[in-house]
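Regression test attached.
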Amino acid sequence: MNHTLAPSSVLPRADHALDRRHIYVLPTRGGFFFAVVCLLVLLGAMNYNNAMAYAVSFLLGAIFVIAIGETWRNLAGLRCLGAAADPVFAGQKARFRVTLDNRAGRERMQLELLMSPPRGGLRRQPRQHTQPFDVDGGAIIHADVMVPAPSRGRLTCPRLCIRTRFPLGLIQAWAYFSPVADCLVYPAPKGDSTLPESMQSASTTAQSGVVQTGNNDFFGLRGYQRGDPLRAVAWKTLARNDQMVVKRFTDAADERLWLSLEQVRALPDLEARLSQLARWVLEAGRHGIAVGMLLGAQRFQPDHDPRHQQVLLRALAEFKL
Amino acid sequence: MNAPARLANIRTGNNHPREVHFLWILGALAMALLPHSLRFSPLLVASFLALAFWRWAAYRRWLPLPDKQHRRLLLTKTLLVITACVAVWVSYRGQSGRDAGVALLMVLVGLKLLELTTTRDFFIATTLGYFLVVTNFLYSQTIPLAAFMLAVITMLTASMVALYGGRHEREPKWILRRTFFIIVQAIPLAVLAFVFFPRIEGPLWGRPMLSEEAQTGLSDEMTPGSISNLTLSDEIAFRVNFNGRIPPAAERYWRGPVLWHTDGRTWRRGSLRDPTTPQVRFQGEPYRYTITQEPSNKRWLYALELPAQIDDDMYLTRDLQLLGRYRMRRRTSFDLISYPRFTIAELTPAEHQLGLQLPEDAHPRARALAMQWQAQAGGDIERLVRIALSHFNRQPFTYTLAPPLLTEDPVDQFLFETRAGFCEHYASSFVVLMRAAGVPARVVTGYQDGELNPVGDYLIVRQQDAHAWAEVWIEGRGWRRVDPTAAVAPERVSDGLEMMMPARGGLRIINDNPATAALWRRIQQTWDATNHRWNQWVLGFSPARQQMLMRELGLGDIDRSVLAGVMMAAIGATLLLLSLSIQRSSVRERDPVRSAYREFCRRLARIGIQRVPHEGPLDFAARVARLREDLAAPVAEITGSYIDIRYANGNGRDAVAAFRRQVSRFRPRTLAVP
């Protein structure tokens, strides 16, 4: 089971760079307003036979036309290499980290990633909590999009929209891309039942012959890895020398716990049961208990490794989908 | 991936414009208001500055803004808006709508400053700024103002660029560079539109009562001193481009209002209301020329004596005045043909009567003198005229710009006491003398001479060239021009007034030295020539002139709809060109390694070995080697370099160059079929 936790390195696909066929261009609300102003000035110029008013109106019109090209150019040639997201629990927001490839382009200003297409024309834009970002020429950049993850399972990355209004805000250019990526959504850790009794086992230590991590006796520090409980972070060390390290403990007595759907049969439906199991898995992790799990035909041996916890949660997330 | 990936710098908090954006827009708006600040009440300017300061202080958190958190201030703002509108209404009531409109716009812009919060507000403020630019052109359209307004438009546009400046928003140089980039591209497009956009002769909904500048100029009344006042002004009355010969100074009489009626002091046009056009016989060689007249707010036009062929929208009165259909509120150009020699055969009884009119009991001494001359001449009118002129010439008459004030009977006092006067004194007293001697005569006002500008080769006629002369009726020869001023000061007619006047503008130190004076004069002439061209070709670019230009361009008499079509096509073509150029420039491969590798694949495809999309470079190379053993070595070499650059040692310049050389040397051939 090779499930990586960090955003997997995304291999460049034979993506098309954004070009004429992929980029849409329309005036913004402000752009329409500007065009109306242009027209009013032109009418005034006609009425008063004012040559300079004609000139202003034509210059504004020309600026508008040039802005179309400029805005378009700000997006053209960009590539989306893909996206990746860390697992989240249901009810949270998945953070899709989108990789944009600007190796073939100049500096790009004020790009925005949106989840819904921008509204053209006179309608007001819905509030979208994206902050525009700039991209260096010749760079590859990551940008995050937050996508709500309401239920467990696999959340596929929605069709994304990249938009820009640079340089004048008169015109917006946008394009769509659908990165092939999904985010694992664990069941929301819920349920009030207490953790079932665990059993002592001395055999594990003997079998593996390595020191298992527990949470009773401190025996050293190691570098922080994703998935380490925040509780274990040595905050004082972090404050002293900016290094994220975690404290490691050993348990005098090793504990093992088996979880299964049988234990939560009292709960009304499968989702509630899986949520309860997810909560127990986290709780056991906090207490340094090695958890094993029986889930349908799958059987997971008890283990202390934080990665093991992710394996269990993933099994819960994908169970019977 | 050979470039390090970077996480986009994502800002938190609202995305409203900040102080730096405010300073941009404030600067731009202040520039747009600058020319107005000289025209409008200082109170208006002061209130704008105060509002600007308030908004700025709010950015600095020194003062609160009138927003929802400060309801009392919100009320203050509402009161301010009402007060401002009422103040504008009260101060500009009954005056031109233009001034009131502009004042209101200025107030609104000032108050909008207080509301600048969101990007949208900034957008609206910028747009109001563009309107302010246009309002400046309602007052003046000179070259310096146009240049300044171009700078203002650039600044306004820059303030928009600043809003979208991202990480460069605090780099004015960067923002200005981006703005210049846009403006420089836009200007040719705007020029095209200016020339080809089908022009319509306004007004569309009624012309407001406004004229560009305050005018001085001849009126249709003349009192002693009215013309000499004008001569202090070096404002331009009109400019003349000759098509061919230029008349000598002594023939440059620009005919204006003809005055018939006198009350002893003031001359007026009189009650001649005869709509017929006189029968004129023209002789000699005509002059062809174009007059560009500055707005005078008067109906009459000036023309070289005497126009034979005139435009449709003007006509010649019975006393040979050229009248336009409307008052000249704008600078207008018209083409004319004039013959310096002409005869009019008939004198109507009404004209005869008016031509002899004199106020009862006025000018007794002048009448006595005239009776004496009449006896001398014995019915020969030409002789009578000669006697009168020689009187002016022999007696100690002087020609002066500052004649003594005439308090009693002006004609008698001038003729027998002061004997110092300006052209209007000479012309009016000459006409009085002629009438007293029984010869129909009238006063003609207008301009005389003009300054020839060698730069651009045209004549500038200024207010200081205003002149008055006389015309007498000689039976059988018609109306003859007599200029009594010439008898007193011949150089006035031959050299113009210029000699008597201090040099225009400039410091004394410049004018005293002949070399610098000549240079200064040359600069003035060049500047005036530039202005003249600007007036003719830019400001005066009327529908007629557009048609003329189209004809010159060989486009013939184009229909407006065709012109509109051409215009749309031009815009379409520009857009197409733009998009094509963008297409080429930005989607073109910029990664030399990738393009070289693609070229390598293309060359193999040409001999029938196509790389399939899912095939990696190594797999492809292996397949090529299987198919064509002879190519295995070079293909392996190229693939090796590619992989080395891409995945191992990076793309050093030498490595890339070597790789491209390898690819360019690689020329696979199809195997000859045995």
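Expected vs. actual: identical. Residues 28 and 171 of chain A are 5 Å apart (CA to CA).
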